[in-house]
UniProtKB/TrEMBL annotation:
The keyword Transferase does not apply. This is GTPase Der. Gene3D superfamilies: 3.30.300.20, P-loop containing nucleotide triphosphate hydrolases. GTP 2 binds at residues 183-190, 230-234, 295-298. It comes from Marinobacter nitratireducens. The keyword Manganese does not apply. Pfam families: KH_dom-like, MMR_HSR1. InterPro entries: AAA+_ATPase, G_ENGA, GTP-bd, GTPase_Der, KH_dom-like, KH_dom-like_a/b, P-loop_NTPase, Small_GTP-bd. Belongs to the TRAFAC class TrmE-Era-EngA-EngB-Septin-like GTPase superfamily. EngA (Der) GTPase family. One of its GO terms (molecular function) is GTP binding.
């Protein structure tokens, strides 16, 4: 589905300039003259393979008469047609009564609207946007349309990424929460799947390698849809010899990518081994939520249980945010409780947070613990917005972010995880520096500037020679 984006706002706030930047065209007339656009104009844009349609509209004031009333009707029609509405305001003019009237209409329309503060060049963007936070929009973007600044971040936040488009395709094929059950051979994965389903759906046999292919099983439990994915066991590479087993491992890794939540099954009798840690690493690299299930817990004496728990806590200390369950898939003890963890993981992985909340968390974190100095200059982190889900991606914008140390990044991750209450899911951070509007442009001097530059160079050479002569004397 191609998203439709409508641009609305007062006259002369930069809607047509933004339209031209988003469509990479000059189709819309642009001049420092209010009311130039009268009809709604359509254009097509493309950002990293995602097509979208933009609608440019005439300015709204709230007290339209005559031809202005017809222009307003055209603008309101564009709002009805759009999937996403961008409400443009002028960062130099500040908040006006007309802005408040338009914001009130957008709230009543029920459309998904985002506030875009334009003309932030030449001033502090945060100060320029401060007046408009009172309008109460969940997401606010700061741009300078005439300099093409901030537009990439805007499109990146609005449009679904390639991963999100693939997720939509998977959601159509496999409804509900997709739960991948992975682990080494013969740890009880298929037994756990049958226990979660409440029926003997997959073959269970006391022999490694019983499951060859990944089996996708849609079902419903307590009114909620799920898809369980039973996978083949993954052994160490040096032990894999059969061609069929190699393909089974590939299918298992693909199943991890398809899943929302991965349940890693560990054999309590054998304890936590290196291959379990390799599988955990792959799940985290894929960005999937994780639940640890220590199986075959029945029949173990208290000393053995204490030893296994201590080993799991010690070696999985880096996974303190993932729930750990000690279960018996054969007898069903502890299996039902895992659904609560799966639900928490899914909600954390698919959560959507407004830009103003993420920015507030970032500002509080920076106020509590400042980033370090780099070459005498303080690293500045300005604002944050969400860049994706499953796993949650938080994009942080600032200056000198490439010099931000790993320890500070971990501090930010822990802070966001604690405040947002993200459970079971990894959080990914992307740090982006400010866009330089003059990057790649050649500094061309006028003839008068060239003459001045030559004269300054000659003067500098004469002064240098005079100093050298005086030193020799």
């Amino acid at each position: 589905m191609t998203p439709v984006i409508a641009l609305v706002g007062r006259p002369n706030v930069g809607k047509s300039t933004l339209f031209n930047q988003m469509t990479r065209s000059r189709d819309a007339l642009v001049a420092d003259f209010p009311g130039l656009t009268r009809d709604r104009k359509y254009g097509e844009g493309n950002y990293e393979g995602q097509r979208f349609i933009v609608i440019d509209t005439g300015g709204l004031t709230g007290d339209e008469l005559g031809i202005d009333a017809e222009m307003a009707r055209q603008s309101l029609q564009a709002v009805e047609e759009a999937d996403i509405v961008l409400f443009l305001v002028d960062g130099r003019a500040g908040l006006t009564a007309g802005d408040e009237l338009i914001a009130d209409h957008l709230r009543r329309s029920g459309k998904k609207a985002h506030l875009v503060v334009n003309k932030t060049d030449g001033q502090d963007p945060d100060i320029a946007a401060s007046d408009f936070y009172s309008l109460g929009f969940d997401s606010t973007f700061l741009i300078a349309a005439s300099h093409n600044r901030g537009i990439r971040s805007l499109l990146e936040s609005l449009l679904p990424s390639e991963e999100e488009r693939e997720e939509e395709d998977r959601a159509e094929r496999y409804p509900g929460i997709r739960i991948g059950v992975v682990g080494r051979p013969n740890v009880g994965k298929s037994t756990l799947v049958n226990r979660m389903l409440g029926e003997e759906r997959v073959v269970v046999y006391d022999m490694p390698g019983t499951t060859r292919d990944s089996v996708y099983i849609p079902y419903e439990r307590q009114g909620k849809e799920y898809t369980l994915i039973d996978t083949a066991g993954v052994r160490r590479r040096k032990n894999v010899r059969e061609v069929v087993e190699k393909f089974s491992i590939i299918k298992t890794l693909q199943a991890i990518d398809d899943a929302h939540v991965v349940i890693l099954v560990i054999d309590a009798r054998e304890g936590l081994v290196d291959q379990d840690l390799h599988l955990i690493g792959f799940v985290l690299d894929a960005g999937r939520s994780l639940v640890i299930a220590v199986n075959k817990w029945d029949g173990m004496d208290p000393e053995e249980r204490a030893r296994v728990k201590e080993q799991v806590q010690r070696r999985l200390d880096f996974l303190d945010y993932a729930d750990k369950h000690y279960i018996s898939a054969l007898h069903g003890s502890g299996v039902g409780v895992m659904y609560d963890s799966v639900q928490d993981c899914y909600e954390s992985a698919m959560a959507k947070w407004p830009t103003n909340r993420l920015t507030a968390i970032l500002q509080d974190a920076v106020a509590q613990h400042q980033p370090p100095m780099v070459q005498g200059r303080r690293i500045k982190l300005r604002y944050a917005h969400q860049g994706g889900s499953n796993p949650p991606v938080i994009v942080v914008h600032g200056n000198q972010v490439e010099s931000l140390p790993g320890a500070y990044k971990r501090y930010l991750e822990n802070t966001f995880r604690k405040v947002l209450k993200v459970n079971g899911s990894p959080i990914r951070f992307e740090f982006k520096g400010g866009e330089n509007p003059f990057a790649g442009k050649v500094d061309r001097l006028t003839p008068r500037q060239k003459v001045k530059k030559d004269n300054d160079l000659k003067k500098g050479r004469r002064i240098k020679k005079t100093r050298q002569k005086s030193i020799k004397r």
